Amino acid sequence: MNLSLLFLGKFLRHGTAIASLAPSSPWLSRATVRNVDWDRARVLIELGAGTGPITRELVDRARPETRLIVLERDPDFVRVLRERFEPRPNLEIIEGDVRDLAAMLKDRGIDRVDNVISGLPVPSFPKDLQRDLIRNVSQILDPAGTYNQITELPWVYLRFYRSFFYEVRFAFEPRNIPPAGAYYCRGVRPID
Question: The Ribosomal RNA adenine methylase transferase N-terminal domain covers which part of the protein (predicted)?
Fold first, then answer.
């Protein structure tokens, strides 16, 4: 199956529910997880994994004892992810909605995660879903942990993420087509 065609088809049918026209490049995938402390990470969660380019980085770089949770809502993407990456003892791919994130993790005995890596098109979400997502992240993210958000619009959403987090840095990746990057966010601000 051509993953790029699957991704493009989803984008054309679902618009802003899919963050991109094509899967992230290996350079962008590496940039998105560049700040993860692989020696200390116990639990990592990926939101909106799509066809799995960032999942590949997580699987390749995480220690065997690091628990990887991948959440994807689209059943076709979930099938692709399971075909590509399962079975692995430290990886679980969940078909579900980000609104149920805290409950899904609680059901798995997870209180806190060290890093949240997001491929979701958060700025395109309705305001209530944006707040729900960040509220869920604040419930599960370790105070020293980071929320990493991939973007294909470099620097455009810096102010947007600063409205939700106290500390926001941006890493630019010019080799992706189109040029893109990742926000590294720490310290969730209180949400109304």
Answer: 28-176
